[in-house]
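A quick word before the example. In earlier lectures we treated sequence and structure as two separate objects. From today on, think of them as two lines of the same record. Here is Transposase written that way.
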Amino acid sequence: MKLPRSPGYARHRFPAEVISHAVWLYFRVPLSLRMVEEMLAVCGILVSHETVRQWALKFGQGFANQIRRCLPVPGDKWHLDEVVISITGRKHWLWRAVDQHGAVLDILVQSRRNAKAARRLLHKLLKKQGMVPRVMITDKLASYGAAKREIMPSVEHRRHRGSNNRVENSHQPTRRRERTMKRFKSAWQAQRFLSVHEQVANLFRRPANTNAADYCTSRAQAFVVWAEATGIAAGF
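And the structure line, produced from the sequence above:
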């Protein structure tokens, strides 16, 4: 049975199925806006890349919020890391946290790499996750230790570069998108895009050590969740 459509689709020239599919392509696949325009054109859907951009801005965060509510409870072991990104020639830092399963908990774009920035990340994580982790794993940046002692002193803190490969690997899809988009244009744009991108990636992430049959099952379930989050029927 077709799910009720969100009133947010009202007064749009294209149906909800086209809009949600365009948004999925943009956030799930490393494509530029013009590439998404061409992929839709192959299907006979003539829409400009600027329209795709407007759809992504209007609907992306709402879809991500719905996805977050449907995903399993995150693990109790948090891996934290930061990576430098260049925005209009200025150095910024992308702070990221993932759990032991590789699911992204949150990201935060900041212009500093100090204890204040680390505290902002931890405060945001605690507020959004609603829980305190059992273990926090970071590299040897001293800012993490200072923030952790102030905000959650009872949590075990492990500092070793080799133990943090899980979150370091999680940076790779971001790097690919950064190249496709020819770098982010502002800190606001990077934060807004990646907040949606990471939730979509969480939904369609392939669990470790799964065979092809299990992956097909989990992917089918992910598309069901996507249909529910976007308010359309599965199988577009």
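Notice the following. The CA atoms of residues 2 and 8 lie 17 Å apart. We will return to this example when we discuss secondary structure assignment.
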